[in-house]
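tokens incoming
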């Protein structure tokens, strides 16, 4: 089943090569966010747009900054850290790491990131907490959940998430904000929306459990091809890349052979 009224294909978005072009794309995405919110009676101000700048070079990130971006998402830690260091003169630019993290790279995230959206392992939680203590910092984190039951994706199962969340107060440097997911990548909008519904229902159950020191208020879900449906089901953060920066010159499998994330 497909939706004849589906939004434009982000892969057909021309590459934005100026601050003005990026600004127009941002305005377009924000208008779509507002429209989705209106359809379900939500306040557009309750949805945060996280522009995703993976593969976007430094000069175009400076254009995005000129267009008003102050928070950017990156999948790969080393790519993000390199950009952070190269753009250190932009002192109010913050970075969210939204891809899978190995424990040996936790030290990098602890040094520069303001947010980590892919927490799905207590080993990573421990490594981050330990390094954050050394750095004298705290870090906002989202628990990643595999809402589509795909073996190729990272994230906890919805059934395992409650027990995992109960362990997180043991890591005081981590400020738990909510949940993150990658929905099924499909033209079947019913199956995609089911992933978002599953996440909303899980958040409600975790709220009811009320673990001390843990806030499960945020839902980071929805990317360039599906963020409107995510908003209609309760997303508070949408991660959008190609609809802002334009289509990448090569497919995702070239950059991330084992990575199913599409923004």
């Amino acid at each position: 089943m497909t939706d004849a009224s589906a939004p434009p294909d982000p892969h057909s978005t021309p590459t934005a090569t100026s601050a003005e072009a990026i600004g127009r794309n941002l305005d377009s995405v924000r208008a779509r966010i507002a429209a989705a919110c209106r359809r379900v009676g939500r306040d557009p101000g309750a949805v945060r747009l996280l522009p995703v700048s993976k593969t976007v070079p430094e000069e175009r990130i400076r254009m995005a900054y000129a267009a008003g971006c102050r928070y950017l998402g990156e999948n790969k830690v080393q790519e993000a850290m390199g950009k952070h260091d190269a753009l250190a003169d932009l002192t109010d630019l913050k970075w969210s790491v939204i891809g899978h993290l190995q424990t040996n790279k936790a030290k990098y995230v602890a040094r520069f990131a303001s947010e980590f959206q892919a927490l799905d392992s207590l080993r990573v939680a421990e490594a981050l907490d330990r390094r954050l203590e050394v750095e004298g910092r705290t870090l906002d984190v989202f628990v990643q959940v595999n809402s589509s039951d795909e073996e190729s994706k990272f994230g906890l199962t919805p059934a395992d998430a409650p027990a995992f969340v109960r362990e997180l107060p043991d890591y005081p440097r981590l400020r738990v904000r909510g949940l993150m997911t990658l929905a099924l990548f499909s033209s079947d909008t019913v199956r995609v929306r089911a992933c978002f519904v599953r996440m909303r229902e899980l958040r409600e159950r975790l709220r009811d459990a009320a673990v001390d020191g843990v806030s499960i208020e945020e839902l980071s879900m929805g990317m360039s091809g599906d963020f409107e449906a995510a908003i209609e089901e309760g997303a508070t953060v949408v991660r959008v890349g190609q609809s802002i920066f334009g289509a990448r010159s090569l497919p995702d499998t070239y950059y991330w052979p084992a990575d199913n994330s599409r923004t």
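note: Residues 37 and 44 are 6 Å apart (CA to CA).
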